[in-house]
Structure formats: structure tokens, C-alpha cells
Amino acid sequence: MAKADDTTDDDGLALSFGRRLAELREIAGIDGTELGRRVGMSQAHVWRLEAGRAVPNLRTMARIAVALDVSLSALVADVDCSSVELRNRDYVRHKPVRS
């Protein structure tokens, strides 16, 4: 099963978000290390986001927006979501582990 930040099907979305994040970070005049410190994540994870290798969840996006002093809508403004496919994802049911 894919992880929540897996970009296998959403590479275009991840790349577009990453470009927007890098743009806003540069406008704020901070580097990836400082953004990571403000958000509470590693600089490596900031790099993964900016490189389009991960897509953040809503809570992380909200923390990033606060750290950059922009609204959540400004953070995702102009992010291209045209590559997102609307389709059912495989559902894997796991049996409960008994001890």
C-alpha cells in the first residue's frame, strides 16, 4: 500500500507544489533549513517537497503557510492539479493482529 506522501500517480502535482513552495520560500527570504526549523521538519524533507518527491498533507501545508506568513490558498495558488487522475484506488484489508 502506498504511503500518504507517495507521488507515484501525482508527480505533476508534486512538482507544481514544489515549485510554488520554493518560490514562496525565496520571497520570504529564507533557506530550506530555516523553513524546516519553523515548520518542525528536516531540511531534507523541505528539499523533498520542493523537488516534487513528496506531497504534504493538509496539516503540513497549513504549518508551511503559517511559517511563510501566507494564507493556505496563497500557498496552493497556481498549483497545477491537471495531472491528478480521478479513479478508485485499490483497497487492501488487513487482518487484525492478535496477541
Tell me what you see in this structure.
The structure is a single chain. With 99 residues, the chain is an all-alpha fold. The protein has a domain at 11-76: lambda repressor-like DNA-binding domains (434 Repressor (Amino-terminal Domain)), CATH 1.10.260.40. It is 51% helix and 0% strand. Helix 2 (32-39) packs across helix 3 (43-50). The longest helix is centred in the first third of the chain and has 18 residues, at 11-28. It is globular and about 50 Å long. The two termini are 24 Å apart. Residues 21-75 form the HTH cro/C1-type domain. This is Helix-turn-helix domain-containing protein.
Features:
single chain; 99 residues; 434 Repressor (Amino-terminal Domain); 51% helix; disordered N terminus; DNA-binding; Helix-turn-helix domain-containing protein; DNA-binding transcription factor activity; Cro/C1-type_HTH; Lambda_DNA-bd_dom_sf
